[in-house]
## 1
Amino acid sequence: MRDLDQISAIIDQGWRRVWATSGYLSEREARFIMAAAALAPASGKNLEIGSFKGRSTVGIAFVTRELGLGPVVAVDPHTSPASTDPDLRRSGQTTSYDDFVTNLKSAGVFDRIEIKRAFSYDLAREWKDPIRFLWIDGDHTYEGAKADLEMFKPFLVDGAIVAMHDVLGTFEGALRVFVEEVLDCDDFGPAGFSGSIGWTQYRPRDGSRFRWRRRLLAIPSRKLIPVARRADKGLAGWNKFLYKFWRPLAPHGSVSVRRLAKLLRTVD
Ligand SMILES: C[S@@+](CC[C@H](N)C(=O)[O-])C[C@H]1O[C@@H](n2cnc3c(N)ncnc32)[C@H](O)[C@@H]1O
């Protein structure tokens, strides 16, 4: 494991590249996934489901390249097929693929990525490799997010990190999957939020040791499920009040490299 200050410096450089790439990821979230990809104490591939124009792809590819950590696979049909996807037509496009490739080249990470222009469920049919970092940012419907976790969970290596985007927000499906399939499940150990990202570490041998911490996180998150369901046309009135009440009770601030390393027990 490299020095944590060195990892922080690499993340700073990565952020400059992510910042220059269009897409859907805040600075806090981008820094979090770069830290998670850097610190996951496991060997294997880094799999991204849902790339759009490459904002998250650039961050993951940059840090894992600088640290010599496993190949990056990015799967996306680049047609925004899910009801939860960004609307491509608004920008007069039919595909995000051309912008994706241009952005990866501008960031200098194109050669680092194995691009799969496909649906995650098509890739899953041929997938055989161990996964050290799984980033789920594709179809945010309940069925889509659940399938993405279920299809690739068998390939997670002990210690791998799973991070799901748009969990702590108004996407009911992704939130419900995170609460029911991750926070309620002893296959997973430490867990938390950063921005709208829900994350956890795959710890099938001792995940039960973290059960109570996951249960505490699940209390406010579970309360947000019906709020998110009613928010499909925007947050308003009493529902907005409930959102503003429960969301802060699920801690979702920035997570420093040192803090994450401690949570993952990669440092004392
Ligand atoms: C929210 S965007 C991803 C944003 C991107 N990660 C970023 O950092 O800007 C969601 C993407 O998921 C893709 N998608 C939707 N369903 C998918 C599926 N079943 N498998 C793979 N990608 C999917 C869409 O084409 C879209 O580009």
Note: The chain has a mean pLDDT of 96.
## 2
Amino acid sequence: MLCVEPVVVYSPDYDLSLWGIERLHPFDGRKFSRAWRETHRVIGDTLARRTIRPPRPAERHELLAIHTEEYLNKLRSPRYLAQVIELPVLAALPMRLLESRVLKPMRLAVMGTMMAAREALRHGVAVNIAGGYHHASREKGEGFCVYADINIAIETLRRSGELIAGQDKVLIIDLDAHQGNGHERISAGDPDIFIFDIYNRDIFPQDREARARIDRAVPLSSGADDETYIGQLRRHLPAVIRAASGAKIALYIAGTDIYERDLLGGLCVSPEGIRARDRIVLEALIAAEIPVAMLTGGGYSRESYRHIANSLCYIFEKWV
Ligand SMILES: [Zn+2]
């Protein structure tokens, strides 16, 4: 039996703040601290006792486990970074500021994903209240994703010997509204990684080449509601769990941009639907004895933090 003692990875320094400029993007830069505080309001100090804080941002040598030198150097350009973050106004800011207010918090979240993956192996379930940058590939950032935290975490576990390449299966369950083209591109030629992706086919990134790498793809159309979404999840998940049977770890990108009022996701899933999705996925993985690191992924509405908190509360009610 898999022993489940949930761990939360979080830092108040995950928040992105650029004196209000960030509000030009539908992303809530403070959703990380809001999600933790909302969960704390409901759960109380048990959350604090089970929360660990990344001690430092991921370092260059850790990022190089996946990214190229050329790409990391390119990130020193405000113009390039503004394009990746999809916020053109950032191009006018000094790099020093972008480094401390944007890149550093993101590298802290990468560290958080690395820690969540390691904690999942020990404690069954770990949640990083950030990360899930699933559009970032080895030599390119896009769609608000700069660093490929998912694959960096997998590679880090391989380098430390906690996962054995060529032997230990890894399952990526990507239920963010967008197709996870970054980790799909990075995982090309890596037979240990099994990818399950349910996404809205009508929105960004429409990456056909990356789609070919998905082991089980469930493309949905804009407007898919609870019935369709949960119905498809229930239909495909058992086969995914069977195919990935014996997987050493699952990384679950629980993007809340499937929410009906999300400004970018285009789907029509209710708050109850989001909670049901997370419950179904986590319970299926735990029943199959697959440890899981959950990442919060995308979420572009003022209520995103509430959906994250809902699922965290569920985890604590169920397993603590
Ligand atoms: Zn997304």
Note: The chain has twelve helices and eight strands.
